[in-house]
Amino acid sequence: MNTETIDTGPVLEGALNVAEFYRGATVLVTGGTGFIGKVLVEKLLRCFEVKKIFLLIRRKGNVSATDRLQQMLEGPIFDTIRSTAPDAKERFAKVVAMDAAFDREDIVDDVDKTKLCNEVQIVFHVMASIRFNEVLDEAIAINVTSAQRLYALASSMAELRSIVHVSTFYANCDRPYIEERIYDDVPYGGLEHIQLFFKSLSVEEKERMTRVVLGDMPNSYVFSKKCAEAMVGREFGHLPIGIFRPPIVISSYREPEPGWVDCFHGATGLCVPVVLGKTMWYYGKPEVKPFMSPVDHTVSGMLAAACDIYRRQCTILPVEKPVPVYNFTFEKNRFAYGDMVELVCSGLPNVLDRWLSRIKCRISPWKIFPQMLLWLMTLQARIADEILAWFGKRGSNVKIVSAITTLSNAVEYFRCHMWTMDNSNVKRMLSLLSRDDAKRLDFDGEQIDWRDYHKSYAKGIAMELMRKNDRRKSSKAANRA
């Protein structure tokens, strides 16, 4: 396998024409009901004249794929389309849900398979399990085997132009310097050997062996993503496919509205105590500068990458083209974890809250202080829940502290390490955008004003907390009824 950075072509070969690339196209999206997936679907509907968007959606309990799609389209992320587009109803009708079961060899039924093979030109594989503590074979089943089955299906698509495999920049976080290429150095004889070995183990043995196999990798999520990249390079290099590696994806900068977020994973989840005015200290190195990307920038980069993959497939020799990789990271414009609390606090509406939160929430280079604070908070939470129990009410204080602690421990590795990287393909892609496409797809991370960004960050978190609280109340009312 070619181990050099994959050049997506010189500027002289002509600019990308992203708007034309999507005009009249049929797009297939997995993970469309997730955080990144929703923004991707919204952007396609609002900014591009696509013909149709197929979403592969898994049934959840008694909720069908069609019902899950309807719930998603009724969400606030699509309010901009509803309020500004006269043909909003027609645009939403372009989105079609398909029942998918990724635990089967054939992920869709024969009728849907025929539709996909005859109509789809562009594929975005966004779906993934982001649970960091997943047992390794389960993480591989979701993050590797599902992709394998999807790309086997894509091999039969008659008009296929481009596939974007969404990975993560941290898929190779055991390396201090990360290039734009596939690292096919999966240990223990490779992916197939690991899968075969895990088949014969008990649940307890799988948990123990997961820690052994991971080695220097911090969790099963990033390890399985590394395995998926290697699988793509070995088995599907003949397809027009590229690997897109976003870093930590956080709430939107400007689209569909500033600060929009609908989940509290990773860095966003750790900022919830700041917004709520709670005390929380996290262990980490304050000087570490993480790679972060607003979700709207990430989606714009994905959309451009799909077009660049197609351009490269059509124009660059030799005939056998190695899989291009896009490190969607920007070196120059980063802030340190030590500055993050101040930035988040800058978006709080009350001056006193901004001042107090800087004291209450910190990144500490000494592990003992966050640990002592955690013991105290856990004790307070238990006492508070016991008092509520005396009055016949169910308390959730311990549960909240536990959830934040679990998240903090899961991403501790990333608060203590720093990486350098090559992002030549992303920079080249930026240089190939036409003026109109550059306005439509704003993803130059070096142009982000992080102080301006964080003016809406805390508000976005507060809005999602309110929405979650309203959903809980509605759910309880429905159960009582």
Brief sketch in words of this structure:
This protein is of the alpha/beta class and 481 residues long. The protein contains 21 helices and 13 strands. The strands form 4 sheets. Strands 3-2-1-4-5-7-11 form a 7-stranded parallel beta sheet, with helices on both faces. It has a two-stranded parallel ribbon with strand order 6-13.
How would the blueprint of this fold be written?
Layout: H1 18-22, E1 26-30, H2 35-47, E2 52-57, H3 65-73, H4 79-84, H5 88-93, E3 95-99, H6 110-119, E4 122-125, H7 136-154, E5 162-166, E6 177-178, H8 191-199, H9 203-214, H10 220-235, E7 241-245, E8 248-250, H11 266-270, H12 272-276, E9 280-283, E10 292-294, H13 295-315, E11 325-327, H14 337-345, H15 351-360, E12 361-364, H16 368-390, H17 397-410, H18 412-416, E13 420-421, H19 424-431, H20 435-440, H21 450-480
Parallel strand pairs: 1-2, 1-4, 2-3, 4-5, 5-7, 6-13, 7-11, 8-10, 9-12
Helix pairs in contact: 2-13, 7-10, 16-17
